[in-house]
Specification:
heterodimer; A: 301 residues; alpha+beta; seven-stranded mixed barrel; five-stranded antiparallel beta sheet; 8 helices; 31% helix; 25% strand; B: 324 residues; six-stranded antiparallel beta sheet; 16% helix
């Protein structure tokens, strides 16, 4: 049996994805600390601008490097990543300049409910919808209690990908309060654009219509991917989310959903957003107190 | 100068060599699914290998040319007709203003590539003319071609009668072996599960497109474990990670999926191996029902296969130069 896992470096597992990719698994479980490692190693590698390294993709608890082996030998890629990992382990960067913004969500909407019903044969629970399943699985009394938990505290963007501009969001609460759910048994072939989904401990927002395996809770009226770059918040790049962004969901009803859609159509919608410094150690010391500070920064006039 | 799409075929799209550098925000490399066939088509009409071509799976389009140019068709084996008369594959030929190019039924392989001298001149988005239909940008208006589209072409002096020699043309079979590098999350499979992946015959399902190719076959067995925090409860779930292009994931242990050039860039299903870059072109020429075996190779073997693939393109180039 050919096994290509070279060796272990501390907890990390290095492995080749064919002849063009290196995958580094920093840990099997998700945590904010391991996500910081992925971000920090990526930042070092990006700054080194190594010819032949095509893509540096930080993920939740891992890192994917895409390289051109005609330009850079795989062993050199591996050596560069190991050196970056050692550097991060030696002097961990524990704070990051980022921003916080609000994403309005119409929970329990007809679009995701219809799609959920259509793919029920791929779901764990034949009866009800994904929100009802989510409430039961998380020992919450009602769908409303689940929505309150989902929209009550901020989330941090731990990875951007799957499809163009799709954020993976990690809830900024102690682990015992994090919402956790299995993905669909088999992926759907369809998901409405701008669906707010959940799989494992991660929320996501589907940037485009397409396949997906996450539970579906609602839709946001706000674009997160705009190839035509119509809105002012997209003037620099067609993708809004960046790793490290902090997000606050806010529950809205159908009327507000339609009002915001009208602003988006008119090209006048602006995100409510503020720059913030996220300090991992201060957060870990007092999550609720720190979140209150973040939300005060977001909603300060 | 344009070409009019009288019939689009099933899912024809404009592709070049792809759009590297944006995978970290989920934008896949895209580009011709069979890069070798696309490169050969371009070389035949005097283009550089990175010019934009039309890729058509399973069924050819109907095209009308508004002015004289030179055309070549490569890839899947499919009869080519110019104004109803047979035209060659793997050979450049001249078309006149008003000429119509049509295609017969697919005989072998899955995707044809149509190159014109000067290339299809659609806007460059993020460094590439390739269509990324899921994201709605690139190619012709960010989508697959439709009836009535008028696609501009560039100017260049193509030469008709250039031929890729028979000996260099690929032959496409309904029985294929794909070389894979094991690894990634394959430690999550039991020994029996890993053996089953390599020792079974897999059949390509109809779910086979630029995003991924799904195979039917036996169920793979996973190691029992308490799932790590954040991964979800199914044994095939992992904390969402980046997906290499060519990686093979096995959601629920059934129906392995090979991600292709419009890959989703990450997700929460364990990947257990990756098809080597040289064989991704072969995957692109598989149609549903193709019987498939996965053959484990080392990274060094994958790199040698890559070099062999590059030398094929060089031989095609030399053959075309010698004929000049």
């Amino acid at each position: 049996m050919t096994h290509n896992i070279a060796r272990k470096s501390g907890e990390s597992r290095y492995s080749w994805g064919g002849d063009e990719h290196l995958v580094v698994q920093f840990a099997e479980a998700m945590s904010l600390e391991v996500n910081f490692t992925a971000m920090a190693v990526s930042k070092i590698l990006s700054e080194e601008r190594i010819p032949g390294i095509v893509d540096i993709c930080p993920a939740n608890a891992s890192l994917l490097i895409r390289f051109d082996p005609d330009v850079v030998p795989p062993a050199e890629v591996e050596a560069a990543v190991r050196a970056a990992e050692d550097k991060v382990a030696g002097s961990p960067s524990r704070s990051v300049e980022t921003r916080i913004f609000e994403v309005p969500v119409w929970y329990d909407d007809p679009f995701t409910n219809e799609t959920g019903a259509r793919f029920r044969d791929r779901h764990q629970r034949p009866e009800g919808n994904d929100l009802e399943f989510a409430a039961v699985e998380n020992d919450l009394d009602s769908v409303q209690a689940f929505i309150d938990a989902h929209s009550g505290s901020p989330w941090i963007t731990s990875m951007v990908g799957f499809v163009a501009g799709l954020p993976f969001l990690f809830q900024m609460v102690p682990q015992e309060r994090q919402l956790e759910l299995p993905k669909y048994l088999r992926p759907r072939t369809d998901t409405p654009a701008l669906t707010v989904g959940h799989g494992g401990c991660f929320a996501c927002i589907y940037s485009v219509r397409g396949a997906g395996g996450y539970q579906m809770f609602g839709v946001t009226p706000v674009p997160i991917f705009d190839p035509e770059q119509r809105l002012a918040d997209f003037s620099d790049f067609m993708i809004f989310f960046r790793p490290g962004d902090i997000v606050k969901f806010r529950a809205i009803d159908q009327d507000e959903y339609e009002a915001i859609r009208a602003e988006v159509e008119a090209g006048t919608y602006r995100y409510r957003q503020r720059p913030v410094t996220f300090d991992l150690d201060r957060f870990l010391a007092d999550p609720d107190g720190y979140n209150t500070e973040l939300l005060e920064a977001l909603y300060a006039s | 100068m344009p070409v009019e799409i009288l019939e689009p075929g099933l899912a024809s799209s404009i592709q070049d060599r792809g759009r590297p550098g944006y995978y970290n925000v989920g934008i896949p490399p895209s580009g011709a699914a069979d890069l070798r066939a696309a490169a050969a088509a371009n070389l035949l009409v005097g283009n550089t290998p990175d010019a934009a071509v039309i890729e058509s799976p399973y069924m050819g389009p109907v095209l009308r040319f508004d002015e004289p140019t030179v055309v070549a068709v490569t890839g899947a084996s499919m009869p080519v007709m110019l104004n109803g008369a047979p035209a060659p594959q793997w050979e450049s030929f001249a078309v006149a203003a008003g000429d119509q190019l049509t295609f017969g039924f697919l005989q072998a392989g899955a995707r044809i590539y149509i190159a014109v001298a000067g290339g299809f001149d659609v806007p460059v988005v993020l460094g590439s003319r390739s269509t990324y239909a899921l994201g709605g940008f690139g190619g012709f208006e960010g989508r697959n071609l439709k009836k009535g589209d008028v696609v501009p072409i560039g100017r260049s002096n193509g030469v008709p009668g250039k031929v890729v020699p028979e000996a260099l043309r690929p032959s496409y079979s309904r029985d294929v072996e794909l070389r894979v590098v094991l690894g990634l999350y394959d430690y999550r499979l039991t020994d029996a599960g890993r053996s089953c992946l390599l020792e079974s015959e897999w059949s390509l399902t109809p779910v086979a497109d630029r995003t991924g190719f799904r195979y039917s076959g036996p169920v793979l067995e996973w190691e029992e474990r308490v799932q790590p925090f954040g991964a979800g409860s199914d044994p095939s779930n992992i904390v969402d990670a980046g997906y290499p292009v060519g990686s093979i994931q096995v959601p629920g242990g059934v129906e392995p999926i090979i991600l292709h050039r419009d890959a989703v860039s990450g997700g929460g299903y364990a990947m257990v191996a990756s098809v080597i870059s040289a064989d991704l072109n072969l995957v692109a020429q598989c149609s549903p029902g193709t019987r498939t075996r996965f053959i484990a190779v080392t990274l060094d073997e994958a790199l040698r296969a890559r070099a062999d693939s590059a030398s094929w393109e060089l031989k095609v180039r030399q053959a075309l130069d010698e004929a000049a």
